[in-house]
Amino acid sequence: MGGESKKKFLREDLLFSLCGLNCGLCPMQAGGYCPGCGGGAGNQPCRFARCAQSRGVAYCFACQAYPCEKYAGFDEYDSFLSHQRRERNIRAAQEAGLEAYQALQREKRELLGYLLDHCNDGRRKSFYCLALELLEWEAVCSAIDRAALSQLPDPRSRAAQAAEALRRAAERSGVELKLRRKKKPKEA
């Protein structure tokens, strides 16, 4: 019976998780290691997914009990993907409407694909994912436009230019492009 619930956990929206994370901007999904929230039989449902399934909602914010105790401490640290904007992602999806929010996520994923295909020196996937998640979309677009990447001859120089443009955009926005890791207790 336990295997059946795993197989049944399928969702259409693989870019925006039901808890509010932008799975399409996760390095694990971008690298082909994870299909995204509800993306296949091998993707084990988390506590949020099991709860949403049992309540018959596609997104946690559609539940009358949201936010619930399951979210206690969830946003304190990041996983492969930043949790820093999770609540803001949910508000944006509610305010703009899911279709508009999903369209924006597809645009971000398309730009991520471009950056990974044309501006990657093999060390930038996590950085690009984080920048696209934490920076405002307009700031990202402006930074990439100003970088004039197509004029540079090779992926290494394009990667350096893109990374510098995104770092400057983050600095102007007061955003730290770094995952918040849980600190391990010091051994005595």
Account of the protein in words:
This protein has 188 residues and is an all-alpha fold. Helices cover 49% and strands 0% of the residues.
Sequence-ordered SSE layout with sheet pairings:
Layout (H helix, E strand, L loop, with lengths): L1 H7 L18 H4 L16 H9 L30 H11 L1 H21 L6 H10 L2 H11 L7 H19 L15
List the uncertain runs: 1-7
What is the string of SSEs from the N terminus onward?
A: HHHHHHHH
Global outline: globular
Number of strands: 0
* Biggest beta sheet attributes: none
Fraction of residues in β-strands: under 5%
Structural class assignment: mainly alpha
Q: From the alpha-carbon coordinates, what is the Rg to the nearest angstrom?
A: 18 Å
In brief, what are we looking at here?
The protein has 188 residues and is mainly α.
